[in-house]
Specification:
By secondary structure, the chain is an all-alpha fold. It is about 40% helix and about 0% strand.
């Protein structure tokens, strides 16, 4: 299989979607070595074809896992994922929290009240007030991310990272309302 160009749109798409196979060279099955249609870089396609070889063609799990670049436990994980949710579940899932789970509506309401009273209050002071009120440890960056994009003419955002124009400074800041969902941009 010839090396794809670095600006290959499919390669970029697979990377963006998180479905780029980290070990395409380990895929030795004939489907992927003899055909241009089957792409060993596409992790979802590789996993599906591995499952199909066992389920429809009766290949052994050990043989299929080896030829598709996986271990037997990885085969069983892919099989369980596919049975539970179909093709979409063959794509890797992002790990970790999916949103700012510590910032409940009650915590966001407190942040809004405090910011309204004192818009120039530092994020570290907000962290301390949340700790006192809710006995909850929140990272300053979590608070900063929970607030939506800065409104035009609101002034620089106040926080640990300084201002947009001067990252090292501790410039004053305007008040910004939280997003309704409590989860801001990542």
């Amino acid at each position: 299989m010839p090396q794809p160009p670095l600006d290959d749109p499919k390669l970029q798409s697979l990377r963006e979607q998180g479905t780029l196979n980290p070990r395409p060279q380990a895929v030795t099955d004939d489907l992927f070595t003899d055909s241009e249609f089957f792409d060993r870089r596409d992790l979802v396609q590789v996993r599906y074809e591995m499952l199909r070889r066992v389920g429809k063609e009766g290949r052994s799990i050990t043989e299929a896992a080896t030829r598709f670049g996986f271990s037997r436990p990885s085969f069983y994980q892919a099989q369980a994922a596919f049975q539970a949710g179909g093709l979409a579940r063959l794509a890797p899932r992002k790990r970790g929290p999916k949103k700012a789970h510590k910032l409940t509506a009650e915590v966001l309401e407190l942040i809004g009240e405090i910011r309204q009273e004192n818009p120039s209050l530092r994020t570290a002071d907000l962290v301390r007030r949340i700790q006192e009120r809710f006995a909850l440890t929140v990272h300053p960056r979590t608070i900063e991310r929970s607030w939506g994009p800065r409104q035009k003419n609101d002034g620089p955002r106040r926080g640990l990272g300084g201002t947009a124009r001067n990252p090292g400074s501790r410039g004053g800041g305007g008040s910004v309302a939280p997003q309704a969902s409590g989860a801001g941009p990542l």
